[in-house]
Write a structure and sequence with these properties.
With 287 residues, the protein is of the alpha/beta class. The protein has eight helices and eleven strands. Bound molecules: zinc ion (2 copies).
Length: 287
């Protein structure tokens, strides 16, 4: 049974292979559909976001792939769009008239240093802890709250189709524990965020990148949050956040087993040009 993936990067941002190599892998794995989601440009220097002048070429290349492989697989053009306080998300990430099939909204930046550069927490642990010290005086609760507030603002203002790696701010917790996910202030913060996601009718991404890249393995969002998502009947989608073709479905079977245990039975996926709920088991989508 096939999988589907709508979160992957390529040479247009910080991925390690061309869009063509990714689609060939998706076809080889029997995917019925595939979504590209390079990091959208941001209005400042960034090592991993797409350069603004590459956006038109990126969309044209996906258009070419749609024509070349459309008889074998459905191809969708998306972007992973940063929401950054003070800059906003979708409307500042490129020309307003770009036409996307879907958008993933993600928060990777939580503050601005005195030299005006933006603090990206999604890097090496050392840079993360230095940033928290400089910008938040080691008040992790304040930093985590700022992160989730950005996710809430993004959801309200941009209404992305998919909310990317919802609790990614926990990613350095195994290096040095700064978050106890059972504390009430945190569960309340998550609850408030989920309530807004529910109101705005967005899909929460279950992102497996932490399962195959992180030691110890880490699923975004974690099990306790996924249980709340299930109780609230918020739709989910399974993505791997692949940076190379071999990562397209990594961690999917393991994640699917965890999701089935919680009670989930379907993913909301973009298929035949519309979002629809498709049942799954640990081996793939039941289509
Ligand atoms: Zn991301
Ligand atoms: Zn990503």
């Amino acid at each position: 049974m096939p999988w589907i993936n709508y979160h992957s990067h390529s040479l247009y941002c910080d991925g390690k292979a061309s869009p063509e190599e990714f689609i060939r892998q998706a076809i080889a794995e029997g995917f019925p559909a595939y979504g590209y989601s390079s990091h959208a440009p941001v209005p400042f220097a960034s090592k991993w976001n797409m350069a603004a002048d590459k956006l038109a070429e990126y969309l044209a290349e996906i258009g070419r792939i749609k024509k070349a492989y459309g008889d074998k697989i459905q191809v969708y053009a998306g972007l992973e769009i940063d929401y950054i306080e003070g800059i906003r998300g979708r409307r500042f990430s490129g020309p307003d008239n770009i036409s996307l099939d879907f958008a993933i909204g993600s928060v990777h930046y939580i503050g601005q240093f005195p030299d005006q550069s933006y603090f990206c927490f999604d890097g090496q642990p050392e840079a993360f802890f230095n940033g928290i010290e400089l910008l938040y005086r080691n008040d992790f609760r304040k930093a985590i709250t700022a992160y989730f507030q950005s996710v809430m603002h993004m959801t309200e203002f941009d209404q992305p189709d998919i909310i990317g790696h919802l609790d990614k701010i926990k990613m350095h917790n195994s290096t040095r524990a700064y978050l106890d996910e059972s504390e009430k202030w945190y569960t309340d913060l998550v609850e408030e965020t989920l309530e807004i996601i529910l109101q705005q009718d967005c899909i929460v991404e279950v992102n497996t990148r932490g399962l195959y890249k992180h030691n110890p393995p880490m699923l975004y969002p974690g099990i306790s949050i996924l249980k709340r998502i299930f109780q609230k009947n918020i739709p989910i989608i399974l993505n791997s956040d692949a940076h190379q073709p071999g990562e397209l479905s990594l961690g999917f079977s393991h994640a699917a087993e965890l999701l089935l245990d919680i009670g989930f039975r379907s993913f909301r996926v973009l298929l035949d040009d519309r979002w629809q709920d498709i049942a799954f088991d640990q081996k793939g989508l039941l289509i």
